[in-house]
Amino acid sequence: MKTKMILLLVFLISCGMLYGQEKLGELAISEPEERSIVVRSPDRAALIVVSEVADLEFESTRVIHAMHPRGASEWQLLVEPGRQIITVRAPGYQPVKTDVINLQVKRAYSLKVTQVKAIPGTLFITSDPDSAEIRLNGVKIDGKTPFHLDEVLPGRMNIQIEKEGYRSALKTLELQSNEITEWHVELTQTAVKVHIELENKEVKEVGIVVNGELKGLAPGAILLEPGTYQLVLQKPGYKFPEKVIEIEFGPEDIRLSEKLIPLHQPFYKKWWFIGGSAAILTGSAALILGGGKGQEPLTGEPPSFPGSR
To answer: What does the pLDDT read at residue 308?
Structure first.
């Protein structure tokens, strides 16, 4: 089962389906060959286009006079004679162009338009800083920069690079057949990640208040733009003196370690409990060590109680 899933994944990638890639096939167009066909137009040349590809569209650098289907796989175009370039388009294919061709008046020429089997290429994406997340045609992938994807069919792909604290980058790439398509992104920093740890390890979910606004919970991290801020940590039963922090851009995150002060200490930590306990312990020790010195020894018979004899 696991092997079948891996093979399916490879197949989807090779087909460009995994990330919604817009697949564009390739067309090839032959050199024009003169044909012995009567051209009835007195001031036009004729092009006979032969192809198994459906829904072809034609564009010329000179005005196309008419286009007539000659069957399931042939079209006839009447064009102005002279030097020109013919562009052929079809849904799902990249446009293809002829070289400059010289068409003579009242002459007919044939062109063959065929499909070309696409050879997959490779996509390679890098960023500075790295470890940025990637979206291909809006689909978040399980990988970060630097990243490469093999067996990608030619076509158009929208790529978005995202990283916390940096402005996202978006670009549409034309992936070429049997080629490596590379994109390197210099990300622009917009904020700094500030990590706040607590020396009171037992305390959790402490509010992080910046300039009077709750930004998150400590221990944890928040994003701040460069500037000066008033920082307060809030937790019922604790106090924290307000402090000023300066945030500047840098290659590393900022890390702060802070301590909360309990408003009410446990009774066994208060001074009067500690002092009283010490006095009791001292007195007890003196009584034990003194052994009752200065008192009269006990004499006589022990007291008797009813029913004891």
So the answer is: 46
